[in-house]
Amino acid sequence: MHRTKIDIPLEKREPLVALLNDRLADLIDLQLQTKQAHWNVKGPNFIALHELFDDIAGSLGEPIDDVAERITALGGVAEGTLATVGKRTSLPAFSVKLSAGRDHVDALSTAVATAGKSIRAAIDRSTELGDADTADLFTGISRDLDKHLWFLEAHLQADS
To answer: Using CA atoms, how far apart are residues 160 and 130, in angstroms rounded to an integer?
Structure first.
C-alpha cells in the first residue's frame, strides 16, 4: 500500500482495495466477454444484438476506470492485467464457440447477473468497512448492471 493522507485507516483500506480489485477483475472480464459476443454473434437479430453488445461493452469502460482510480486513491495498486483478471474473476467462463444470438444473450445475462450479485455484496462489505464513497461507487455500477441485465433478458423473455 502506498502512503496517503486519506482519513480511512490502513486496516480498512487493505480489505477495501482487495474488494475493489476483485470487482475490477469481474468488470474487465465482463467487458471482454461482451466484446467476444459482439464480434461473434450470428443470426436473424444480428445487428440489434451486435449493437447492444457493443453498447454494453462501451459502457463498462467508465466504471472500470472509476474502480481502478478508487483503488489508487485508497493507496492500493489497481490490478488490471490479463493474468490477474483471470485469477480474480468470479464470472463463469465464456465459451468462444458460441455463435447464435440467443446463446450469446443467455451467456452474457448470466455473466451480468453474476457481476451484479458480487457488486451488491461489495456495497454491503464497503459499508461495513465504513467507506460510503466506495459503497456509492458500487451502487451506481449495480444500477447500470441491472439495466444491462434487463435489456439482455428482454431478448430471452420474448420466447417465454
So the answer is: 43
